[in-house]
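sorry for the late reply, my laptop died twice this morning and i had to redo everyting from scratch. anyway the thing you sent over, i finally got around to it. pasting the sequence first so we're on the same page, its 193 residues, then the predicted structure underneath. double check i copied it right bc i was rushing
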Amino acid sequence: MKKVIAITGGIASGKSMATNYIREKGYTVLDADAITHSMYERGVFNDSLKQAFGDNIIKNNLVDRKALGELIYNDSKLKEVLNSITHPLIYKEMKKLIDESLCDVLFIDVALLFEAGFDRLADTIICISANDDIRASRLSLRDNISIEYAYKKIRSQMSNLERCKRSDIIIEHNDNDLEDFYKKIDKVLKEVL
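ok and here's the structure:
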């Protein structure tokens, strides 16, 4: 029977580093962000988003994600509209890819795992966790943004505490010691596989 392990974590927690390491170890990781990007490129959301947000968000037969982002950034209701359109379709695509996979063990990388209901796809949930101060510092450096803006982005997501409470396994990534982080991942992989 196929085992599906979800990897989640807040922005700048180290989730992508973890999934890249897992890939390097030879495992298949389905990345929700990559799937979403592919669906935008294929025009999957075009008609629904055009209907919800108007013609201005379509340029060259593709959703202008920058224009869409500007619309929803400061409006939580519009963001909910966007999510209500895209999340069910992304979920369906992820489920299809899981069902079609020939792997015995499959990892899924989903930042909004709980918010979008993708936790239903997983047998085990691993949360990559780091405290907000460390995440804000990493995010500020990575994206060349102010610390204040980094905190704003962090606070726009589910709290780290809530995410950890709903996960089966937590891997702390509060320092930048990659060797130690990879050892923690190896230990968890032995437990879950």
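The mean pLDDT is 94.
thats about all i looked at so far, will dig more tmrw
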